[in-house]
Design a protein that fits this description.
Elements (H helix, E strand, L loop, with lengths): L7 E2 L2 E2 L8 H23 L4 H35 L11 H10 L11
Antiparallel strand pairs: 1-2
Helix pairs in contact: 1-2
Amino acid sequence: MTSPAPVQYKGEPLEPERGPGLGCFRFQLVVLAIAIVLTPLSVAWKWPEWLSALLLVLVILLLLVAGQTIIFLLRLVAADRRARRRPLGSATKTVGELEDEASRKPPSDEGPMQQ
């Protein structure tokens, strides 16, 4: 069995070492959770308006960054699953194996010719 082609990301093979890791994502989520709790409390505790606004902007930015990080991490999981072999008990081929087989198969000269 040949290994499948690497998953492409921005025209290059996807490399997990070049992107954010799970620890970075967990840190983002912890900071996001703290900011989500503090934002409404800052209004209730009558903190300065600029500080409440800053917390709100921080929440929005962290949602954006954490969303992008989770997309990257999900692509890594998908690339890892694609690279794995088919379970030994499975009688059918995986979608990745069918795609690889179709891309390796040269067009046959048999059959009707189209002009």
